[in-house]
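Exercise 7.
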Amino acid sequence: MSPLSHTFRFKYSWRTYQKRFLEGFETHKNDNHLHVVAPPGSGKTVLGLEMIGQISKKTLVLAPTLTIRNQWNERMLECFVKDESAVETSFDIKNPETLTFSTYQSLHSFYKNNLESSDAELLAFFEAANIETIVLDEAHHLKNEWWKPLFSLKQLPECVLISLTATPPYDSENSEIAKYFELCGPIDMEIGVPELVKEGNLCPHQDYIYFSEPSKAQIQDIITYREQLLQFVLDLQKNEELQQFITQHPFYSATETSLEEIFSQPELYSAMLIYLNSCGKIIPPEKTNVLGITTKKITYPSFNYHWVEALLQPLLVTERETYVDNESLLSSIEKDLRKIGGFDKKRVNLEGEKKLYRSLSQSPNKLKSIVEIVNIESDAMQRNLRMVILSDYIRSEFLSINEASKLSEINKLGVIPIFQYLRLQLSEIPAVQESKIAVLTGSLVVVHQELVSELVKLLSEADFNQTPLPDTNFTVITPTTQGKKEIVSTITQLFEAGNIEILIGTKSLLGEGWDAPAINTLILASFVGSFVMSNQMRGRAIRVFPTNPFKVANIWHIACLDPTHEQGGVDVALLLRRFDAFCGVSLEGTPYIENGSDRFGILDADLQADSLNKKMKSLALHREAVSKRWNQAITEGAVLVRELKIEYSSKKRTVKPKKLLYQDVVKFAFLELVALVLITIPELFVKNIGAFLTRGMLYFFYAIASGFAFVFIPKLWKAIRLYLKFGRKDRQLRNIATSVVQAMCQKKIITTPETQLKIRIETFEKGAISCYLLGATVQEELQFVTYLDEIIQTIDNPRYLIVQSNWLRKQLGYSNYYAIPGIFAEHKKDANLFLYYWRKHNGKKATMLFTRNRNGRKTLLKARFQHFNDQTTVASKKALIWK
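Solution. The predicted structure, written as tokens, is:
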């Protein structure tokens, strides 16, 4: 008899996506892998339990935390069985039962300590226990040391592996992504947030950003730091000893005999030339010939921080031992770098991301932002407010702050600093009652004294101890061993009931696995930039709340602007990266649903904190409008697709992108020619009428023709040059995408019939273009976008290179270089396969170069230098959008 045949039945109705998945369950199970991707709150645990029931074999469930592990048992009792005795369960991985709930850490510890990391013993143990189903919950959490035992478990006879996750590790290295899919198998179903909002399984929600500015002291530190960096670069350019060192370096003084070394360090050689050019030195043509550049006029890139790092990193670190005779010079440069914080842990870093980020991410002014957000939301929501504030650290040392006069001492972000700052600023927040604030972390709980009586109703007094927080109306709750299991659920109950309206906690406890659907406002006071963790934290707020069917959640992010940086600085950059982890509805304008930060329009706006915050506040007060925007955007699409967005911009100034340049070339060239015909020819006729009368028809014809050629040919030549350089980028992208798809189909990377596939190209007002593939599986979509991105991205160090040109373009110096994607570059036959489809759609004149020989490295060097010399940059990024 099957272990779960008569005791395991779902008690409720299935959601639409769950029902759809279960209808195709047997098909999905054919490869012994079941892989579901769905956002937090979508019911993955319940679906996982149903899969276990349908397979009906002894099962090991692995989760990343004890909280999530326990939820599996809770959901089973709530939704599938009559009582605890219906199914034999275990929480001890060493003593498996019909259902064993454990953690990845426990498996690793058992594998390492009890089985001495023996794959054979691990396999024998679980085979003897008759485990035939493995469940990997939140599979994106897998750490390096956990992979090995999991791959071993896959070898169990007739084993079925179930993988559930909200966020596959798409932001990881390609090798990590490949390993993830090797373990978990292809995605059987990916459910997006829009579908779940449409079905009413997740609530409408919106993200907002509240900006602060550094203190005057911080701003001065940033300005001083940047001035020091600038002065350091200027000093380098005036350093005659360094100039002499570079000109005597073998790369420069003996270029022809150093070609192999130059080709192995192309960026160093380029940096040397760029440095000498910035010092006013004339670079002989034979030096640039090495780069494959034969044009007489060369515009060198500026000697910016990138090139300073490219020059100094080999000299000061990787090749330092080679330059013993110049140690005095190098030591002096290193000393100057260290003084300004530009040299740390054997790395030259003039951008100073870490130094500036530490300063901005921990800016005390973020505490003021939190108070202002609390004021906005409490005034709007009144007693309906259910706010959670998540931070990275507890910082219990701030418990001793107890006077408003000591407010300035709270100078770091953390659970207790936020609690104390908020408590001491309550006079500025009239809608918040002091008794409604509480703290909940794994090791520290703080509640108002008025709440202790409510705690006693839910917990025995033997379950916790209480210690008054001196000079306040709050109490520190310390659960006993017996009470530890209940304290989180008890505080959660009080929060949902409204006894607590503002709950401050750590992302580690409340950021994942914690379930409180009453939350309607979330503040992420965390500076985590992790793709995965960001999605998990945000997922706490977007669950539906049965008692409030009209729930709309506001999710606040905080950032500190760097006023010396045109795009806001490193804190803003890391925050904007966070948005890549999830989809949301656009903030303004025509509603659309997309991941990433473009939907906020932040970088298109003037980055002034006051004006941005005023706009965010105004929008956040209209929750009903958020619900309408979701409904409107959802009706405009049917499915989430992965696309590649490509933007063109000038390195010097804002210019129209290439697609628009092409249109302008055609339009203005045509208008110029019309103008020539209508204006110039009559003018030439009038001016030469005398010649006709005095010298005859032939002379008159030559005069008209020469005048026409003098004016017309330069205009035509200009139009031709522009067209040859810029071309039709939308058409070119389609051709490249078609080459990629057909090569993937031929190599069996895409198994979906090619007749079902459709490539879509879209253009946008500001000139960006995008490309996506319809009809493919989730994994095929992901691979297509990844390979296309490899081609579009700046040339780095590909194994094979495609050179796209023709005779005329070569004469004008307009060769284009493209990397053959890595998946086709491992073997020459695959590279040739890709080249075949490339020529089929992009021109037969394309050639392929192997970059690991001398000629190939020279071309590769030219391609990279051409990119840095080009005044137009191409930026691509992957996006997920509802179409």
